[in-house]
Amino acid sequence: MLTLTCPCCGISAEETELAPGGEAHLKRFGPGSSDDEFESYLFARKNPKGVHFERWRHAYGCGKWFLAARDTVTLEVFGTYKAQTPYPTPEIVAAIQAKRPDWKPDWHQPSVNTTTTPAESLTE
Amino acid sequence: MSETGPFRLPRGGRLIDRAYQLPFRFDGRQLRGLQGDTIASALLASGQLMMGRSFKYHRPRGPIASGAEEPNAILGLGQSGRFEPNQRATTTPLVGGMVTNSQNCWPSLNVDVGAVNNLLYRFLPAGFYYKTFIHPRPAWKHLFEPIIRRSAGLGKAPTEADPDTYEQAYDHADLVVVGGGVAGLSAALEAGREGKSVIVLEQTPVFGGRAAVDHADGQARIDALLADLRALPNVTMRRSTMATGLYDHGYLLAREAIADHDPNAGLPRQRLWRIRAGHVVVATGALERPLSFAGNDVPGVMLASAVRDFIVDYGVAPGRSILVVTNNDDAYRTALAALDAGLTVPAVIDARPSATGALPEAVRARGVRVLTGSAIAGVRGGHAVEDVKICSHAGSGDVQEIIPADCVAMSGGWSPVVHLWSHCGGKLNWHDDRAMFAPDLARPPTGHDGRAMATPVGAAAGDLLVGAADEQPLLPVWVMPVNATRKMKFKMWLDFQNDVKVSDVELAAQEGYHSVEHTKRYTTLGMATDQGKVSNINGLAILSKALNQPIPQTGTTTFRPPYTPLTLGTIAAEARGELFQPLRKTPMHNWAEARGAHWEPVGHWRRAYCYLQGAETPHDAVAREIRAVRASVGTLDASTLGKIIVKGPDAGKFLDMMYTGMMSTLPVGKCRYGLICNENGFLNDDGVAARLSEDTWLVHTTTGGADRMHAHMEDWLQCEWWDWKVYTANVTEQWAQVAVVGPKARVLLERLGGMDLSAEALPFMQWAEGEIAGIPARVFRISFSGELSFEVAVPANRGLELWEKLHEAGKDLNVTPYGTEAMHVMRAEKGFIMIGDETDGTVIPQDLGMSWAISKKKTDYIGKRAQERSFMASPDRWKLVGLESVDGRMLPDGVYAVAEGTNANGQRNVQGRVTSTYVSPTLNKPIAMGLVKHGPDRMGEVLEFPVAGAETYKARIVDPVFYDKEGSRANG
Ligand SMILES: [Zn+2]
């Protein structure tokens, strides 16, 4: 029975108010992707023992999705942040590293200028 | 002799009130106890030592404990709906008029046929069940099973509904202290004085823990603490409240007994507290361990602490002559308590080479023999202790002396109650010198901030010598005597309820069970109703010894909540009957209720399955409704259909991603049927979307799919395409919707007036807005029955008005309300699929011949990539066909069509299954749909559907559209 603070409405919410949504920051692979890419997007999950980024929805509250950085072993919550970000924010990374100095991000964030959202890459 | 029995002491009993006698029944016998008694103390007082039989061997069992850990005195309480099995006599307060019964014995407690198992003990060793399930088979079937079946299951579940009420409550506090003994009360006082909000939870009806029984100044200390605490308004004290589990982030569950077993109190029986604690103090004390000596399960052998509890708390003598056997100083308190009560203590048997602490000296000073370096070699007695054989602890059991006694008070040392600490990840350390697991403060359960969320204090922290610093160390004793023979180990019980003995654990180790978790399951050690509270440490030590490795290397089993069982009543609380789930009702619900609606649950809604007239059966009603619709006109309450508004500059682009088909090109004023898949490619929902304006669509979903589809859309909008300008709103309950269906549908609606509903003004698959009978309405020309059909949506508060006007105006047309089953049959007659019937989470649109509903032009939609996977494109997938019964029998739902050959398990291969099956009143024959391998290419072929206990069904593969293949009727 976790408590997580919804970054949208600011409420410290009981787990009963929340709906889980699995691993955060998955990159969607659609038509044109390889079988490996698609399999990894749809089925492969990190399931780490330690720092984990998760999707949660404040289902019985404001209805908004948000993301949480959490330790799956100690249940420590490093922070919650808006779902509208392709990577954990610098603030969240700093909050994790303050508590877990050895932890390092395992993603390679493109520079801001070249970031394209899936929306823009869609042909209409 | 007291009026409440021969074993009630003339004086003493700090918890009982001798002025109030309470009558109760045990196994049909009328007995009397006192206000303040537990059932166990009342039974003991009356001379009823034997309170049950063990599970496997049906051995006679008396209580060994005085608290929640009791494995033996497990009774059935109450009658009929209030009957409760497996209740601990030691923790259940006696209530006047109580009806109690022993369990696990037949025909009676004293004469038990199942005790024959006891004679078979050599054949029922550890792992008995696993071994005999495998071989020899005949032995299982003819010898063991008949015996075990009759004696299987501890207690019996009640067969009637529980008439009591239960409730749940929520609370928050800076600090929750679990355990109202001196350690807990002290912690509460300290925090209370700091201004923190504090809740103290005490499992028994009295605060104070063991202090008043164990220490001369105990009661005074408790009284002082309670007086100070009462003066603090920020401290809440709850008695009779068992904290059963500690979960993530300080979430604590506790069960408060309010009017347990007292149906006349007019109160909820129990209350479940859901408490969010800023921090938890675990002041749960410790539990005493039995000693493993031969005959330690004979009734009258009890934990030393229990013996003195019965004497001091309840004024009850567990025996007249109490032999104490111990490996520590604490048990000497029992000798003193017995002597103070005027009972005899023939000797104290102490395994330690010497005993020179203050307590042993005090006992010696009272003239009691203290035999150090000694042990018990055996206990004689069937239903009660008769005498005890004494031997040297260092030896192998050579009897040195036989001492008559009717009670043995044993103490193998104490184990801190670390359950709450461990429930949420707190770790333990083994302390060899003190023979116990205690919390490791460096590895606590952590909260949201990564810091400890619990702190153990007092005995629970391993501080077992509170207020008695002059106690001498214990001697770890796991088998008594040290070199006990194999024969003696057959009589040394570890788990008293499940009949697991030292010999069983040693056998398990010998057979290769080296993990404590495996040994537990193999032997059933610790799997009794006390969940190992009495047996786990002793069993663990025996296993470690057998494996010749230290105890911490063997490990400890996982502590899981609840600490003691929770009643299902508290878990359900008010969520019973009508309050189990909130019921959703359409505006026409009451109308339908008054006109014979035969309800079926659909999601949280109730929908009319059919409307029963007079004495007709549902089957007849459905047939009548269908005929009326196809012949003239009927109305269906379609209000439950999901209605989601999708609006914004990017709404069309978004819907093209949601649906397999193209929605962005739908002209304003038109409707289009669409399919929604999940990212795995499987069908999720279907329905008709209507374009309301340039930037607004109204999406219809299935009844059960409304909330799910709305959430699905929001997920993609918020988490993937968050820069798309789209707004969604689930307006399902804002509209009442009536499907007016049948050849006379237009005639009927025109009588209400207000809109031009002619084929020219409102062609098929279009919608129009206006007024019907003066009610603002949207009318959709869509059809799920194949008939001329108008779905009329009006504001929810006008729904009943519209419905009633339709029925008033259509009397001469025989306008007929029809239910969901008529709808289902009519759609099947037309070969329309139903989400949940033709689909089951493994079906893609292509399987259903619905490639026409998949846009070839779109580069992407949810599920498109998944449907490109090789096995999704395989020609061998089962595909939708119609099935026509060859012999006129209706096919059973869900049955499989067999193919040639068998699979690896020797089962027939299969090649298809029935997904929908009905008797069509329109065609007057059974019809069915199914998914069949290569189905559409095999028209006319006959499939076989074998069904157990019936003649094999046969059906011909046909076109799934059974009725009006050219689709002319929908055009009216
Ligand atoms: Zn929120």
UniProtKB/TrEMBL annotation, chain A:
Residues 110-124 have a biased composition (Polar residues). GO terms for biological process: tetrahydrofolate metabolic process. InterPro entries: SoxD, SoxD_sf. Gene3D superfamilies: Folate-binding superfamily (3.30.2270.10). It comes from the Bacteria. Pfam families: SoxD. One of its GO terms (molecular function) is sarcosine oxidase activity. Residues 103-124 are annotated as: Disordered. This is Sarcosine oxidase subunit delta. It comes from Paracoccus laeviglucosivorans. The lineage of its organism: Bacteria, Pseudomonadati, Pseudomonadota, Alphaproteobacteria, Rhodobacterales.
TrEMBL record, chain B:
Transmembrane segments: none annotated. Residues 879-964 form the Aminomethyltransferase C-terminal domain. Gene3D superfamilies: 2Fe-2S iron-sulphur cluster binding domain, sarcosine oxidase, alpha subunit, N-terminal domain, FAD/NAD(P)-binding domain, Probable tRNA modification gtpase trme, domain 1. Residues 491-574 form the SoxA A3 domain. GO terms for molecular function: sarcosine oxidase activity. The keyword Oxidoreductase applies. Residues 588-858 form the GCVT N-terminal domain. InterPro entries: 2Fe-2S-bd_N, FAD/NAD-bd_sf, FAD/NAD-binding_dom, GcvT/YgfZ/DmdA, GcvT/YgfZ_C, GcvT_C, GCVT_N, Sarcosine_oxidase_asu. Residues 174-423 form the FAD/NAD(P)-binding domain. Belongs to the GcvT family. This is Sarcosine oxidase subunit alpha. It comes from Paracoccus laeviglucosivorans. The lineage of its organism: Bacteria, Pseudomonadati, Pseudomonadota, Alphaproteobacteria, Rhodobacterales.
